[in-house]
Amino acid sequence: MFNLEIKTFISSLLSSNMYTIKSEKKLIVIDPFVSVELLDYIEGNLLTVDYIILTHEHYDHISGVNWLKDKFNTKVICNDKCAEAIINPALNFSKYFNILFELMPKGKGTNIPKEIVPYSCFSDITFKDNMTIDWVENKFLYSRIY
User: For a FRET experiment, which of 33, 55, 56, 58 has its CA 20 to 30 Å from that of 145?
Assistant: First the structure.
């Protein structure tokens, strides 16, 4: 088993968190958003992005999926319910994010985009209840929580 390094990135979009797990030169990204800081981290450390893992389908936790897939040709893993919802802007809530920003108190959140267009992405690997991910001599149990 290799040493793992876990890093947290915080989005100014609703203060959502994205996490990375690094082992040697390999990386897993959890709940991605578009981030120059993440890109610098990946490229600066010459990392390979092996997987994107989604904990759930909300837009602020999936908004970087297509960006990462385009840049690093990586695979997305999520449960079957999440996989059904991420392809639908109404179910992943991207369709409603503009309304949410209008309702936010002034001064709450920074760098809010002028407009969020309905967004969708897809999963490459899905599972029903549990899945064991074998990665760099480590095993992770990924369970559906809803």
Answer: 33
Q: In what order do the strands lie in the sheet with 75-79?
A: 5-10, 17-23, 26-30, 48-53, 75-79, 125-127
- Could you give the domains of the chain? 5-143 (3.60.15.10)
- 125 is written with which tokens? 């690997």
DSSP secondary structure, 56-71, as one string? ---HHHHTTHHHHHHH
Residue 92 vs residues 13, 22, 79, 109: alpha-carbon distances, Å: 15, 27, 14, 20
